[in-house]
Structure formats: C-alpha cells, structure tokens
Amino acid sequence: METFSKKEKEKQRQKRQKDKQEKRENRKANAQKGQSLDQMMAYVDENGNITSTPPDPTKKRQINEADIQIGVPKQTEADAQPTTRQGVVTFFNASKGYGFIRDKQTQESIFVHINALAGPLNENDKVSFMTTMTPKGLNAVNVEKL
User: Fold this and answer.
1) Is the pLDDT of residue 95 over 60?
2) Out of 3.30.70.3340, 3.60.15.10, 2.40.50.140, 2.40.128.270, which CATH number does the structure's domain 82-145 have?
3) What's the whole-number average pLDDT of the chain?
4) How many CB atoms lie within 10 A of CB 129?
5) What is the reported pLDDT for 83?
6) Mean pLDDT over residues 68-94, rounded?
C-alpha cells in the first residue's frame, strides 16, 4: 500500500527525469557541431582588444626584453640629490610624535617624525626641510621652523 507522500515523491522524481531528458534533447538539437578550430579561435589586436581576425604581421613590433621594467623604477642620480624644500605643517600630533608637511612647490604631503625636528612644531608653521626616500615613501628630515 502506497501512501500519498510516496506517490507525490515518485511523481516529482519522474517530472525531474522528464525535464532532464528535454534539456538534453534541446542541447543536442541546438549544438553547433562541425565548427572548425579557426572559427573557435580568438585573437588579440595591437590595442589589446579581442577579435575574430588574426593579427596583421606588418604591424608587429619588436620589443627589447631589457626595456621591460618590472617593479619599482630605478632611482636616478637626480632623485637621490637632497635639496632643501619649503612647506607648511598641515598636521602635527606632538603626543604621537608625527605629522605631515605640505610642500610649497609640488603640493604633496610629506610625513615627518618628531626625531627629525630641530625644535617644537605647530600646525600652519612655515618650515624648511630635506627629504629622504623610505620604503613607505618620502620622509622629511632636518625640519627647521622659518
């Protein structure tokens, strides 16, 4: 003797099988058989866009492997030369011991630590300073109040 729930489960199972069979038949009917490798290929043009046409060999450029730069650019001698800069203290927290100086020429914000100061600093003070490069970026050193 079958219960109502067993009959319902059997109906659902048969419906799933039927749906699966219909999907399989649709896939077979709509499958694009006979495509050649050339029709399935995709190419990248000189601008980096994907196309279906092969690239033009006349537009090929030779690239020197030594010119390819990976990582951080090498510093030149001009970058390493320390020069005295002027700026304004935009933020300084004496209790934590650090702040930031806005350079007058480049308008970039440069980190300053309390150990690099010649005297006490406050916000909006005009200062002269030199910079050093650290792994985290530019740091101000030899900071003097103007």
Assistant:
1) yes
2) 2.40.50.140
3) 86
4) 22
5) 77
6) 77
- Minimal CA–CA distance to 121: which of 90, 86, 84, 81? 90
Please count the residues of the chain.
146
The most confident of the ranges 1-5, 77-81, 142-146 is 142-146
C-alpha–C-alpha distance, residues 118 and 144, integer Å: 6
| Residue 54 to residue 36: CA distance in whole angstroms | 15
Tokens describing residue 101: 């100086």
Question: Strand ranges (DSSP E) for the chain?
Answer: 43-44, 50-51, 85-93, 98-103, 109-113, 126-134, 137-145
CA 146 – CA 142 distance, rounded (Å): 12
Query: Domain ranges in the chain?
Result: 82-145
Question: Cα(39)–Cα(47) distance, rounded to whole angstroms?
Answer: 22
